[in-house]
Amino acid sequence: MKRRQFHQHLLAGAAAVAAVGCAAPPVAPAGPAGPPWPPWPSPSLDALARARGLRFGSTLGILPSGPRTRSRFHDERYRALTAHECSVLVAENETKWPQLRPDPARPYDFRLADEMFAWARTQGMALRGHTLLWVDPRWLPAWVTQRDFGAQPGPAMERLLADHVAAVCGHFGRDIESWDVVNEAVDPASGEIRRNLFTERLGAVPHLARAFELAREHAPHAELVYNDYMGWGADNERHRAGVLRLLAALKARGAPVHALGLQAHIGVWSLPPRAAAAEAAAWRRFLDEVTGMGLKLLVTELDVNDRALPGDIAVRDAGVASLARDWLDVTLDNRQLHRVLCWGLADHHSWLQDAGPRADGLPRRVAPYDEQLRPKPLRQAIADALRAAPSRPAT
């Protein structure tokens, strides 16, 4: 879209936002404690989701995602907001391999995840696990990538993976209803499976299939998910094709893959305007191909990167909301989708604050609530998309 058309699209969105009364409210009183201000919207996003057979959730974390983020879980008002809006919780970092066992000389440390999950159970929340195996070698524990597996590395690697899955799934037991078993295995630039020491020595598809088999063995009750960040723009076509090939190959081997997780880290570079119907149609076909394999869908990590949007808050918020609404309308139309999770509910607790600054240096506005925990147009867009979604059997 041309720059002038793009700004016209955003300004029109801003006018629409103002017309329905979801412009930003006045500044909240200072102070981290006290009751919610203003009263958080009702019905909750989860109530709206459940009315359509879905459930809504978000991530929560204790470990910082970067220098500008801190414990989200210990922010009492933010935790209360999470309880208000959500019935599904996923740990942002606390169940990943490098955090659970950074040192092979020491046992697994589940204390941070246990603290959050114990609270979530008191709120009646379902739990998702993220992630048993992150394929990109940058996100494996350093001691794993540097390990000498000896003269017969294959069996030693298989034992290491089996021990990891058994330890993690065994610890959490039936508390976790859904596991991201494999995360981001496809290189978006090539569409091929990423290379790491496991895929090189054990074979890419056999190794990933084995991860799903181990997850079924140690978490037989759980939904087993392949999770990735492919988008619907033309620049994501190779990534989507690679994901389809991987899913087909896993199914052909009999791997127990139950669903595809759509990370939904969307932004202006990946989301066309409504007029670009061809790219939205390509996304719809992609989702239909996935569900045609007998797989379900989840939105696992929704946020909207505002990096390329104008600095003006009203225009920027309207643009973020419009992008999300367009994407959600197409995605929620697929009745095999049964969960929608944000990757954070408030701007100041988003990993995107540390993912590279905006050119103008302004804080990002990427989540449904601002740093004062006031609802933004994005929250309204998610609510409206949930209201408009077709009903499906509750799961």
Q: What would you say this structure looks like, in words?
A:
The structure is a single chain. By secondary structure, the protein is an alpha/beta fold. It has helices at 3-19, 45-50, 76-85, 97-100, 111-122, 142-145, 153-172, 197-202, 204-218, 237-252, 277-292, 313-332, 377-388; strands at 55-60, 88-91, 126-134, 176-183, 223-228, 259-262, 265-267, 296-305, 337-342. It has an eight-stranded parallel beta barrel with strand order 1-2-3-4-5-6-8-9, surrounded by six helices. Helix 10 (237-252) links the parallel strand 5 and strand 6. The longest helix has 20 residues, at 153-172. The radius of gyration is 21 Å and the shape is globular. The model is unreliable at 1-34 and 270-275 (pLDDT under 50).
Brief sketch in words of this structure:
Helices cover 40% and strands 14% of the residues. By secondary structure, the chain is of the alpha/beta class. Residues 1-34 and 270-275 have low confidence and may be disordered.
